[in-house]
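Continuing the series of single-chain predictions for the mutant panel. This is the parent chain; the variants come on the following pages.
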Amino acid sequence: MRALMGFAASGLPADTDIDAEAVALIRFEVPPANPVTQSDIDEFMRTHRPRHYRLGPGGALIPVTD
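Parent structure:
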């Protein structure tokens, strides 16, 4: 965190750390709640089936049929 943001979230502060409380956020948004409902999940599970693959020559994915 120190290398990315200039301060550490835990541990002893370094002499070169910035004051994290002094950094003003220009904008911060909380994303909306997940719009996926249980009925959406049920519909997906009803209409989709798991697919299995194996590695073929050269690393190609080959569908495995049951």
